[in-house]
Amino acid sequence: MPAQPDLTPVERDKLTINPDFDFKNDIAQRDPADITPNELAMFKWTGIYPQLQKGFFMMRVRVPGGLLTADQLARIAELGDEYAQGQLCITTRQTLQFHWLRKDDLWKVLEALREIGLDTKNACGDVTRNVVTCPLQGVCPHEIGDVRAMLLAIADDPELKDRQRNLPRKHKISVAGCGRACGQTLMNCQGWHPVRRAGPGGAEETGWRFHAGGGLGARPFMAKAVFAWVPEDLVLDVVRATAEVFRVQGDRRVRARARLKFVVDRLGPAGFGDAVLAELRARGIAGLDRIERASGPAEIGPMYLDGQAVIPQRQPGTNTVRLIVPRSELPCRDARLFAEWAREYGDGSVMLTARQNLQFRFVPDARVAELIERIRAAGYATEGLERLPDMVACVGTTQCNLAVSDTPNAWRRLHTELAADRDLWAKVGPLRIHMNGCPNSCAQHWIADIGLRGRRTTTATGSEEGFEICIGGGLSGPGHIARPVAEVASAGLVPAVRRILEIYLEDRRGESETFGEYARRVGAGAVSARLGVPAVRGEPANQANLKLQPVFDEAVAWES
């Protein structure tokens, strides 16, 4: 097919470049100068990105639902030691990343991963990405049915994984265990969760509720409820049809508008449902009369996870034990240790979470205290989950080509000066801080209680690094997109966040009102005003040291 001049450069590349590179017999044998920038960009379809540092690569492992065996984790740690400077990174989509890989070693890591039943195919690129789920999938007392079976059916479906390799942009799917926010239903292109009801004969039956059109990035959207009931035997068909509607109707001429969220926004939930049903009919799928439309907005329950270090599982006498991995950085020596502990104390598996942490599963009651003691002795915290110490951050300017702000440094300063203040975070209670080094949302700042988005401001001598501070994001109810309250230079970030927390403690309606509830009740404008931000851009009269800039528009309502 000839290249189309009105398509984006990426779309033209996809017409002429096969993304299934032979990294062993082709790429490893070629001089780096002979690999074009266009080809490098297509490495993403194999989960590989060029790093900021010339000659080095990042590789993302596809881990459906974040569940790894101890043997897989141990082998990944060995590969990290050999090829990735002894370090792994847990991502917000429940995967692992290697950094600092060299071109000629890429095929070695890929082959080693295949030997342990893992791959990197579609971990990046304009494809269906790693399918995510709840961090307690398989063990949560609230989970409905066998969610793992449905998750794997979608994640490994040949049409989605092998044939739908040219979508307009990335396509993200969540398969949650119930209707609570733990599975991040509303921030994904497709969000699924099971529901139960009495069937025609009075027996209980299980179906699935389908949401579509969520997505973050530079312009965030919450997913809309499309179908209130999809029989289990039709779920995979609806997933496939949705991907096909996206393939056909997604924008291939303006890449910034190419996500499914723009298709759903344009058609509306009912119109998008019509498009999916039309595709299903075109495929000859029977029984479509059993699919029921959603009659109202999305309504997701609050998260079950709320700081618990130990969570009793639905399997009697067993527990999930949780720990915080600081800034998602997991040394390979510790990954090997955790693999040993998963075998010794649990069922030989570990769960990677969207908060970039790690969990042990099926730990017997009698062994919980011993495991926690060993975790703490190894330098990891089991307290502070879903609290100030449990911050999410991207790699920032240390490794990313897009970042403009140093999120690792911001994380370290916030952690040292605020998260180490136990009295403070105990008073504040539930709090999720997410930070991104650029306007994109890899670290999901739009759905955080306090979200930080990297920015640079032009100065007389060049530019100054800083962050936009947003508050009030969340994934329960209809979903809430965080609203900006101020822009702050990096040097003033810690005082600004501290002052926002102080304002919350001064103004909240009792200790039961969480920060997120408070932020959504009073609005970003009220918090901005309490910070001392004037009506026009400039130095605040009483907080000049923070270098705050007002960004809140009172005319803009909270998005949901």
Note the gap between the termini.
41 Å
Strand order of the largest sheet: 1-2-5-4-13
- What do the pLDDT scores average to? 92
- Provide a count of the helices: 15
Estimate the helix proportion, in percent: 25-40%
Number of DSSP-assigned strands: 20
Task: Note the main attributes of this structure.
single chain; 560 residues; alpha+beta; Sulfite Reductase Hemoprotein, domain 2; Sulfite Reductase Hemoprotein, domain 1; 3 domains; five-stranded antiparallel sheet; 20% strand
Question: What's this entry about, in short?
Answer:
This protein is of the alpha+beta class and 560 residues long.
Can you walk me through this structure?
- The protein has helices spanning 9-16, 37-42, 70-83, 106-115, 147-155, 158-163, 235-249, 260-282, 332-345, 368-377, 407-419, 422-428, 493-507, 515-522, 524-530, and strands spanning 48-50, 56-61, 67-69, 87-90, 96-102, 173-175, 190-198, 204-212, 224-231, 292-293, 310-312, 318-323, 329-331, 349-352, 358-364, 392-393, 433-436, 450-459, 462-471, 483-489.
- Helix 3 packs antiparallel against helix 9 (332-345), helix 7 (235-249) crosses helix 8 and helix 11 (407-419) packs across helix 13.
- With 560 residues, it is α+β, with helices and mostly antiparallel strands.
- The strands form four sheets. It has a five-stranded antiparallel sheet.
- The chain has three domains: 1-122 and 322-379, Sulfite Reductase Hemoprotein, domain 2 (Alpha-Beta Complex); 147-293, Sulfite Reductase Hemoprotein, domain 1; 392-546, Sulfite Reductase Hemoprotein, domain 1 (2-Layer Sandwich).
